[in-house]
Design brief:
By secondary structure, this protein is an alpha+beta fold. Helix content is about 40%, strand content about 35%.
Length: about 170
């Protein structure tokens, strides 16, 4: 009979132990209770209620990602190819988990869209003449869209920019 009580106590101890989470300095732990977000917790040892709470770790460090080359046409109908470097970080882990399934991927996809959109609103001369202003415009446009996801854009920098030849035109199509 004592073995049964000892087994139950060990099981209860292991269940309680499973609720201890260690959160690193740069992470935040978003807590779900029965599927509803109840908040987030910072670094250190955190306790979640076993079998009731679920947790999701969110990295809040600055992420720097490059876009793949984007081919688009300027306002004066000149085809250009450009790639950009985007630096951003998550400032609101609850929004980042609740609003989008993958804030990093969504930020990069939005960056592609913003690049095409902004470039199509400027002439080639403007784009090549004032890269600093272009970076600033890209950052503002991207920030407007990612703000609601809890993502803050630190900077956007054009890495490479060139005029490209459309393959259909080069083949004579």
């Amino acid at each position: 009979m004592h073995e049964i009580y000892a087994g139950i106590l060990v099981l209860i101890f292991l269940i309680l132990l499973s609720g201890i989470k260690i959160v690193r300095e740069h992470d935040r732990l978003v807590i779900f209770r029965f599927g509803k977000i109840i908040g987030h917790r910072g670094p250190g040892m955190q306790m979640v209620v076993p079998l009731i709470d679920r947790s999701h770790s969110v990295d809040t460090r600055i992420t720097a990602l490059s876009t793949s080359p984007v081919e688009t046409i300027t306002l004066d109908r000149i085809p250009v190819r450009l790639a950009a470097l985007c630096r951003f970080h998550i400032i609101d882990p609850v929004k980042a988990v609740a609003k989008v399934d993958d804030p990093v991927a969504h930020t990069m996809e939005t960056m592609h869209t913003v690049l095409r959109s902004i470039i199509s609103e400027h002439t080639a001369r403007d784009i090549f003449a004032d890269e600093v202003e272009l970076n600033s415009t890209l950052k503002r446009a991207l920030s407007r869209q990612t703000k609601s996801w809890g993502v803050r854009v630190k900077s956007v920098e054009i890495k490479e920019m060139s005029v490209w030849q459309d393959s259909r035109e080069s083949n004579g199509d």
